[in-house]
């Protein structure tokens, strides 16, 4: 049975069995080259409309492990500026319509992987996933999200496998997603996506904590408890996932940037003391001593490097499922 419902990977809802997909990723971690002939003669195009380090490198390594050729194109810096609106009169700065560009990618590649971004200005466009959906509509290829306007599914699958491989007890771990301060308004993608995957996975007790007015779209948080008191939320946590996001309701704003929301060793004392306190996760890049303190990032509680390393296996599991279709 395929672990993906169709030919796209843009959300947890595209997966038939999250636990099985995570197990597959961990199997690739144990034996990276076991399917090295699966993608022979196939090519993946990795299109970036904004910057990336981990996603770009891990996706290429994953493709190579499956025998695929990976071609990276930094559309944002090196390509023509794309237009996404239907029936646009292109008398402004955009040079090429996605309707013309995407079918060409369809001629060059077997799988298209795309990183888009939100405007943080037009909520309706961002939450309709205008950019990635236009690529899906016009490319006629399997499409993998390398982060979109509202979600970051390869990151979240990575987060699932990182929890799965590090939690050894016969109970559900308590996982807390906590808002953290930042110097500029950031997308809600990683937080939305983490919430969606934790909820859909169903193997954790999931709690979200943030200052009032930073509520995420309930479509992603589901029935997870929202706790405004960070100390209360952290009690007995096994994992703390740290991330900043800008406001969703009054879209794309920073209301408050209280430094006291930055996780410290003192706050970690509230978490489950077994094994030296909660494990701390972050998707990276991270602003040290703004989002997360040196004392946390440089401590044994931090598993951010292990988490980033696991990006390869998440990408490999997803590409493998698409290649088998
Ligand atoms: N976490 C993540 O997506 O990192 P990059 O932006 O460097 O790809």
Automatic annotation (TrEMBL):
Pathway: Amino-acid biosynthesis; L-arginine biosynthesis. Its EC number is 2.1.3.11. InterPro entries: ArgF'-like, Asp/Orn_carbamoyltranf_P-bd, Asp/Orn_carbamoylTrfase, Asp/Orn_carbamoylTrfase_sf, Asp_carbamoyltransf_Asp/Orn-bd. It is an enzyme of class 2 (transferase). Keywords: Amino-acid biosynthesis, Arginine biosynthesis, Transferase. Carbamoyl phosphate binds at residues 52-55, 80, 115, 152-155, 283-284, 311. It catalyses: N(2)-succinyl-L-ornithine + carbamoyl phosphate = N(2)-succinyl-L-citrulline + phosphate + H(+). Residues 190-320 form the Aspartate/ornithine carbamoyltransferase Asp/Orn-binding domain. It holds the Pfam family OTCace. Residues 11-165 form the Aspartate/ornithine carbamoyltransferase carbamoyl-P binding domain. N(2)-succinyl-L-ornithine binds at residues 147, 182, 243, 287. Homotrimer. Belongs to the aspartate/ornithine carbamoyltransferase superfamily. SOTCase family. Catalyzes the transfer of the carbamoyl group from carbamoyl phosphate to the delta-amino group of N(2)-succinyl-L-ornithine to produce N(2)-succinyl-L-citrulline. Is essential for arginine biosynthesis. This is N-succinylornithine carbamoyltransferase. It comes from Niabella yanshanensis. The lineage of its organism: Bacteria, Pseudomonadati, Bacteroidota, Chitinophagia, Chitinophagales.
